[in-house]
Amino acid sequence: MDFTDVPRPTAGPTYYKGHGLGNDYLVFEEGPGWRLSPGSVEAVCDRWTGVGSDGIVILTADRTGGVFRLRMFNPDGSEFERSGNGLRVLGSHLVRKGWVGSDPFVVEVGGDRVVMTVHGVEDGVHDISVAMGRATTGPAAVAMDPGALGPGGTMEGPDGRVLEVVPVSVGNPHVVVWMEDPGKEDLSLIGPWLATHPSLAGGTNVQLACSTAAGACRILIWERGVGPTSASGTSSCAAAVSAVARGEMVAGEIRVLMPGGEFLVTVTEELDVVLRGPVAETCEGSLTPGFLTRLDGGR
After folding, report:
1. What is the phi-psi region of residue 27: left when phi exceeds 0, alpha when psi lies from -120 to 50, beta otherwise?
2. Do domains 10-129+281-294 and 136-270 have the same CATH topology?
3. How confident is the model over 66-93, as pLDDT tens digits?
4. Confidence band, pLDDT 50/70/90 cuts, at residue 2
5. Res. 162: pLDDT tops 60
6. Which CATH number fits domain 10-129+281-294: 3.10.310.10, 1.20.120.430, 3.40.50.700, 3.30.465.60?
7. Got the DSSP string for 165-217?
8. pLDDT at residue 31, rounded to an integer
9. Residue 298's pLDDT band (cuts 50, 70, 90)
C-alpha cells in the first residue's frame, strides 16, 4: 500500500507503551497536539532523545460501526501496513481503557480488517491473538520482480551464496530465507541487502529461517524501516506460512522461536493465519510541552 499522498494524522501528547517479546510500540490516540510527520515520528521513537520504540500506533477517532481504526509508523518515520505486535499492543491498550473485554473485536489497519481476542491478563501481561487473514505467497504477493528469482525460488545472495527464498504477504511484505542454522552475521549481511533489494518495489521485511530438532521454526528478523528486532508478529506469521507452503511443516499450530521468545502461529492448509502470544505493559506518560515544540514543524 502506498501511503505517499495520505495526509499525516495528529495525536494528543499522552501515550501507552507495551511490547511483544521485546518488540515495543507506543500507542497514541488521534487528537490535537502534534503531527506525525516523518521527522516527528523519528524523534519520538528515538531511544536516547525521545520516548523510544520500534514504532507508533495511532488509534484514530473514527469508531464507526464499533470498529477500531489504526495507522502505524516505523521509527524511520515511514507509514506501513500492519504489525502483529503493534496490533496486539493496541489490544492491551483497549483492555486497559475498558473498551474491550473477552469477546472478539474488529480492528481496521492498512485497508484491511482483522479480528482480535484478549484471552486473559495476569500481572500486566496480556494473552492476545489476532486473526491475520489469508496469506499469499510468490513474487506478486510482495510486488517483487519475478525475474529476480531463479529455479526453485532461489536468489544469489550478496556473498554469492544461493538463497532459498519464499515471498509471503500477511498484509505486509516478507521474504523468508531458508538456510541451515542462520546466525547474526548472516542477518547483518542478508537483512539490509534484501530489505532494500531493487526487485522489490516497496522493500520488504526479511526472516532467516530454519527448522529445529523439536519441530519448531527458528527465525532471525530484519524489519523494514527498523533493522534487527528481537521479535515480530507478522514475521512469525510469514515464517510459519512459508514453512507450510514449502512442505517444511504441516498445517496447524507452529511454534516460532525468536531471540525474544516464541509465538504460536496457526496456519491452515488454505494459509489462513492466527497469531497468539504475550503482550506486556510497560508504561504510560505524556510528551512535555517543550518536547512538542521541538518536534518537526512544532505543533
Report:
1. beta
2. yes
3. 999 999 999 999 998 889 999 999 999 9
4. low
5. yes
6. 3.10.310.10
7. EEEEESSSEEEEEE-SS--HHHHHHHHHHHHT-TTBTT--EEEEEEE-TTS-E
8. 95
9. very low
- E-only strand ranges, the chain: 10-20, 23-30, 34-35, 56-59, 68-73, 79-80, 105-109, 112-122, 125-134, 136-137, 154-156, 162-169, 173-178, 205-211, 217-223, 227-229, 252-258, 261-267, 272-286
Taking every pair of Cα atoms in the chain, the longest distance, rounded to a whole number of angstroms, is 57
- Would you state the pLDDT for residue 297? 56
Q: Kindly tell me the burial class for residue 64, based on how many C-beta atoms sit within 10 Å of its own C-beta (0-12, 13-18, 19 or more).
A: exposed
* Angle value at C-alpha 126, between 123 and 131, nearest 5 degrees: 170
What grid cell was written down for 278? 504475550
Phi and psi based region of residue 111 (left: phi greater than 0; alpha: psi -120 to 50; beta: remaining): left
Q: Answer yes or no: pTM beyond 0.90.
A: yes
Buried b vs exposed e over 94-128: b needs ≥16 C-beta within 10 Å?
bbbeeebeeeebebbbbeeebebbbeebeeeebbb
Q: Which fold has domain 136-270?
A: Diaminopimelate Epimerase; Chain A, domain 1 (3.10.310)
pLDDT digits (tens, 9 = 90+) for 23-73: 999 999 999 999 999 999 999 999 999 999 999 999 999 999 999 999 999
Length of the chain: 299
Domains of the chain, by residue range, sit at 10-129+281-294, 136-270
